[in-house]
């Protein structure tokens, strides 16, 4: 009997002629994520991916937890492989799932017969194995509608497999199949969630953080480094770009109307992010903006902010309420870090009465007091790059 991990692909199966490239990327992502846990053979057959340990010292528990966070997978099971024989399946079910069956009040057997040459239909195999399991565990009743435990049998090309109920995978598409974006990453709750959500659509992410030392502390930067590290289990390796933003904010404070501080600041973020995007071959900018949450996130303010971007601006959390964003932050493990009391640059020089419906002409006129290109180039040339590993 061989213990393996069985993974089911999600929407990849709906792809057409380029489906193979999605599968290859997913297998590559799995191989890279599993390196710390030993040597595994990972391969794809019939919309399923098999993760087989190649030595006894492989950490199967660690590998199982790791694959839960890989985008492109919708279901995960620990399974036992056996011969494609009805009695081998029965004995494997007893050995592999016996303890779980003994603790259950009721059970049923479900069969998937991908190998149509197998001499029994799915229903016949379920009835055969289910009947003999009922004899072997007489205290556990059969319930085909609402069982406490389900025994899954799968007859596939190379072998048959036995497993219990599957766990939900991360879903989405494999990271690296849908291009690359720059994602603005503050120290708050929303931007790590938006980064996670865009990565779930198969996008590779370059996080960008705007740092205003000494108005924001080194602890604030370390907070963002920690958030980036927490995101690597979903996004893969990251290279965080830390943009020095102090000079720009001081110039805005000295030369621009106070009520426009925030929108002008965010326009500089867009310009610098667009420059980072161009340099790294990115096709869009991602933000954690949420409609109506703060003064700079009205429709009017966002329109003025993105007018200078020159790239699509994607806002994955724009329609969520705060409760939904917080729930996602808790789920992906970023919430506790996000609420640490270290301010980010967005809280520096906050206007007392920000304009919620700025006009583009007024903002452009206010920016004319600044040497915009020189400030953008200065910040870009002094970006600090931090490689983030898991």
Automatic annotation (TrEMBL):
InterPro entries in alphabetical order: Rossmann-like_a/b/a_fold (IPR014729), ThiI_AANH (IPR020536), ThiI_fer (IPR054173), ThiI_N (IPR049961), THUMP_dom (IPR004114), THUMP_ThiI (IPR049962), tRNA_STrfase (IPR003720), tRNA_sulfurtransferase_ThiI (IPR050102)
Sequence positions that bind ATP: 184-185, 209-210, 266, 288, 297
Gene3D superfamilies, per database record: 3.30.2130.30, HUPs
Major location (coarse): cytoplasm
Pfam family, any one: ThiI_fer
Pathway: Cofactor biosynthesis; thiamine diphosphate biosynthesis
Domain of life where this protein originates: Bacteria
Domain THUMP: 61-166
Catalytic activity entry: [ThiS sulfur-carrier protein]-C-terminal Gly-Gly-AMP + S-sulfanyl-L-cysteinyl-[cysteine desulfurase] + AH2 = [ThiS sulfur-carrier protein]-C-terminal-Gly-aminoethanethioate + L-cysteinyl-[cysteine desulfurase] + A + AMP + 2 H(+); [ThiI sulfur-carrier protein]-S-sulfanyl-L-cysteine + a uridine in tRNA + 2 reduced [2Fe-2S]-[ferredoxin] + ATP + H(+) = [ThiI sulfur-carrier protein]-L-cysteine + a 4-thiouridine in tRNA + 2 oxidized [2Fe-2S]-[ferredoxin] + AMP + diphosphate
EC numbers, comma separated: 2.8.1.4
GO cellular component: cytosol
GO MF assignments: ATP binding; CCA tRNA nucleotidyltransferase activity; tRNA binding; tRNA-uracil-4 sulfurtransferase activity
GO BP annotations listed: thiamine biosynthetic process; thiamine diphosphate biosynthetic process; thiazole biosynthetic process; tRNA 4-thiouridine biosynthesis
Enzyme class: transferase
UniProt subcellular location: Cytoplasm
Alphabetical UniProt keywords: ATP-binding, Cytoplasm, Nucleotide-binding, RNA-binding, Thiamine biosynthesis, Transferase, tRNA-binding
Stretch forming the signal peptide: none
Family designation: Belongs to the ThiI family.
Function of the protein: Catalyzes the ATP-dependent transfer of a sulfur to tRNA to produce 4-thiouridine in position 8 of tRNAs, which functions as a near-UV photosensor. Also catalyzes the transfer of sulfur to the sulfur carrier protein ThiS, forming ThiS-thiocarboxylate. This is a step in the synthesis of thiazole, in the thiamine biosynthesis pathway. The sulfur is donated as persulfide by IscS.
Record protein name field: Probable tRNA sulfurtransferase
Species this chain originates from: Sporobacter termitidis DSM 10068
Origin organism lineage: Bacteria, Bacillati, Bacillota, Clostridia, Eubacteriales
Gene symbol of the encoding locus: thiI
């Amino acid at each position: 009997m061989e213990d393996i991990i069985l993974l089911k692909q999600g929407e990849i199966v709906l792809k057409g002629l380029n489906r193979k490239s999605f599968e290859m990327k997913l297998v590559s992502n799995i191989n890279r994520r599993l390196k710390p846990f030993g040597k595994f053979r990972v391969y794809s057959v019939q919309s399923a991916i098999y993760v087989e340990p190649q030595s006894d010292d492989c950490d199967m528990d660690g590998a199982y937890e790791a694959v839960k966070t890989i985008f492109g997978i919708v279901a995960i099971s620990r399974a036992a492989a056996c011969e494609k024989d009805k009695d081998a399946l029965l004995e494997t079910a007893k050995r592999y799932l016996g303890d779980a069956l003994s603790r259950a009040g009721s059970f049923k057997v479900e069969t998937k017969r991908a190998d149509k040459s197998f001499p029994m239909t799915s229903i016949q195999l379920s009835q055969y194995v289910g009947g003999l399991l009922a004899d072997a565990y007489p205290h556990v009743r059969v319930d085909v509608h609402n069982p406490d435990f389900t025994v899954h049998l799968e007859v596939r090309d190379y072998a048959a497999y036995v497993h219990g109920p599957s766990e939900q995978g991360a879903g989405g598409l494999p990271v690296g199949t849908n291009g690359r974006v720059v994602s603005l990453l503050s120290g708050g709750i929303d931007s790590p969630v938006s980064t996670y959500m865009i990565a779930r659509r198969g996008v590779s992410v370059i996080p960008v953080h705007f740092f205003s030392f000494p108005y924001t502390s080194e602890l604030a930067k370390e907070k963002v480094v920690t958030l980036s590290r927490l995101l690597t289990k979903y996004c893969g390796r990251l290279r965080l770009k830390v943009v020095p933003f102090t000079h720009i904010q001081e110039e805005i404070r000295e030369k621009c109307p106070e009520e426009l501080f925030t929108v002008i600041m965010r326009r500089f973020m867009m310009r610098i992010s667009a420059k980072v995007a161009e340099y790294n071959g990115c096709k869009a900018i991602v933000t954690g903006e949420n409609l109506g949450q703060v003064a700079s996130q009205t429709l009017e303010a966002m329109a003025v902010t993105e007018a200078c971007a020159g790239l699509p601006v994607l806002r994955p959390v724009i329609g969520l309420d705060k409760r939904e964003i917080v729930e996602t932050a808790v789920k992906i493990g970023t919430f506790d870090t996000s609420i640490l009391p270290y301010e980010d640059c967005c809280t520096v020089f906050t206007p007392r009465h920000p304009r919620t419906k700025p006009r583009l002409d007024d903002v452009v006129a206010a920016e004319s007091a600044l040497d915009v290109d020189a400030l953008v180039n200065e910040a870009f040339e002094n970006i600090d790059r931090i490689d983030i590993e898991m």
